[in-house]
Predict the structure.
Amino acid sequence: MAKSRTKTQTKKIKGRLSAIIVCICLLVVATLAITDYFGIFTYEKLISVFGLNNGVVVDGDLSVHFINVGQGDCSLIISNGETALIDAGEAENADTVVSYLNSQGIKRLDYVIVSHPHSDHMGGISIVLESFEIGKVIVPKVSEEMTPTTKTYKVFLQTVQNEGLKLTPARVGDVYNLGEASLEVLAPNSEYKDLNNYSVVALLTHGENKFLFTGDAESESEKEMLKKGLLTGVDVLKVGHHGSNTSSKKKFLEVVRPDYAVIMCGDNSYNHPHKETIDNLLEYTDNIYRTDQQGTIVFISDGENLNVRYE
């Protein structure tokens, strides 16, 4: 009888424990749902904290990640363990960026490049600077007249100061080494009346493979680079200004002649990408990728060949 009672008690205890575990799980789910609804602690923040984001993990010598941040830009370069981040989307997407970097095992960013001081490119930079060890922060030198007075820009400058960092002006001809790759600054080349044209344009070279990052550089900047003979044929073009018809003009594309084009955009009221730009690109490549359609897009280079993956 004693053994029988013991088995019965064990079953009861197991049943109670199961019920308690189920209740705890339901409570946790309910708590997360409530905090997420009121914006206290979102699922994205939880994922960021624990590094649980489904990043596209790669094992190539060099990988270039065009991270989906909606209507904004964010590009990550990983080369032989060294890293560079170009832009980080709007501030509201900072958790997505941090989570993605965590998923790639990144602890340090050797270079953070702010292409230009518009919120859809630099809004998330401040959180990134606070979340990782940082090497250089590279920015365009903007005229005093065009220097922003926005809250986003002020927060960025304060974060740079708080983190004990310095701003490095992007100068045409500067080359930054990234493992076996190099990143060369091609623009801006003068002063402008539009912040988009102050965009840092950078050419990434890895063996025979070339990637061109253009920020929001428009036709004025494109013409200057053409006039100075700074442009060359590339494998991958990060299309300027989210596919706007203010960029990617025919004369520019005649020289760049991309094999692949990446348009970083999301839901927007500007009708980006514009049909004119798509038509211009189609004269050179059918390989047009869009973050609003494919999500995060990753190119893997061995110095000769490219492999493309996306979510």
